[in-house]
Structure formats: structure tokens, C-alpha cells
Amino acid sequence: MSHQSHSTHESASSSTARRGTDGPTRRRTLAGFGLLAGSSVAVSACGSGGDSSSDTSDIDPNNPVDIAAASDVPEGGAIKVSSDGVTAVVAQPSPGQYKAYSSSCTHQGCSVTVQDTTITCPCHSSTFSIQDGSVQGGPAPKPLPQYKVTVDGGRITLS
């Protein structure tokens, strides 16, 4: 019986010796799965790549959001503002004309910034016009979604 036991042990150890560093080991297999899982998390954190912009449906039309004072928005420029859980880029392309856009880039959903008269995505350098939210450059596939803007009593509300 001891001969049989020795033979089993010998066969397992010779199997390990044959595998050496060339064959898959349990540790390598598990490490590979870990890398795959980590990669999918990293990719999903970057966005989906197509249409991950926030649409403007996050505002209840029966409950508009007071977002800014009209006097805070420079003529020919824009500001990025937040109120009641909504973040938007509010622009005044010409005197007295106000527009508001989603603050999420239409490429991968990154939060845009305002630089002078341009709306810019810091993630992949897409740029958008303050005139109409149209794509001016970069990988963004479509314009920024617009909010409906109302100006009353010097306040800008979005719906």
C-alpha cells in the first residue's frame, strides 16, 4: 500500500515538474481573471463611448430649477453652475439671449468646463459652441443637450 501512495505522490510532483513555468497554474489562472475583472471596471469607469451624456430629462417640467442670476452670465460667454442637483452650462451668446446645456460631454460623459467662449471636455478635448452647443472639435459625436431656459425677474430657470 505504501508503494501505491508513493506512486501517487510521485505522479503529482512529476506533473508539476513537467508544467514548470510554461503551463497554466491555478495561481496564474486566478491572476488572469483578476486582471480581466479589473480591466472591465476601468473601462466602465471611463464611460461607454457612445451616448452617455446626461439628457436634460433630470428636471421635472412642473418643478423648474432656479439656476443663476442673469447678471452672473457674461455677454458672449458662459458659466457652469449647479442648483438642486442639476449642473448646467449657462451661456449668453448675445445680449439678453440665454441658453443652457448639459454639463456632460456627449462622448463619454465627462464633466465639461467653460474656457472663455468655449465649452471644453477635459477628458478627450471635445469642444462645444456656446451659441448652440454644437461640436466644434474632438471625438464628441453630437451637440450638448439643451435645457429649456426662462428668464424672469433677473433669474434664469431651467426646465
Automatic annotation (TrEMBL):
Residues 1-29, 44-71 are annotated as: Disordered. Transmembrane segments: none annotated. The keyword Glycoprotein does not apply. PANTHER family: CYTOCHROME B-C1 COMPLEX SUBUNIT RIESKE, MITOCHONDRIAL. It comes from the Bacteria. Residues 65-158 form the Rieske domain. Its cofactor is [2Fe-2S] cluster. Signal peptide: none annotated. Residues 1-18, 44-56 have a biased composition (Low complexity). CDD domains: Rieske. InterPro entries: Rieske_2Fe-2S (IPR017941), Rieske_2Fe-2S_sf (IPR036922), Rieske_Fe-S_prot (IPR014349), Rieske_Fe-S_prot_C (IPR005805). The keyword 4Fe-4S does not apply. One of its GO terms (molecular function) is oxidoreductase activity, acting on paired donors, with incorporation or reduction of molecular oxygen. Iron-sulfur subunit of the cytochrome bc1 complex, an essential component of the respiratory electron transport chain required for ATP synthesis. The bc1 complex catalyzes the oxidation of menaquinol and the reduction of cytochrome c in the respiratory chain. The bc1 complex operates through a Q-cycle mechanism that couples electron transfer to generation of the proton gradient that drives ATP synthesis. Keywords: 2Fe-2S, Disulfide bond, Iron, Iron-sulfur, Metal-binding. This is Cytochrome bc1 complex Rieske iron-sulfur subunit. One of its GO terms (cellular component) is membrane. Pfam families: Rieske.
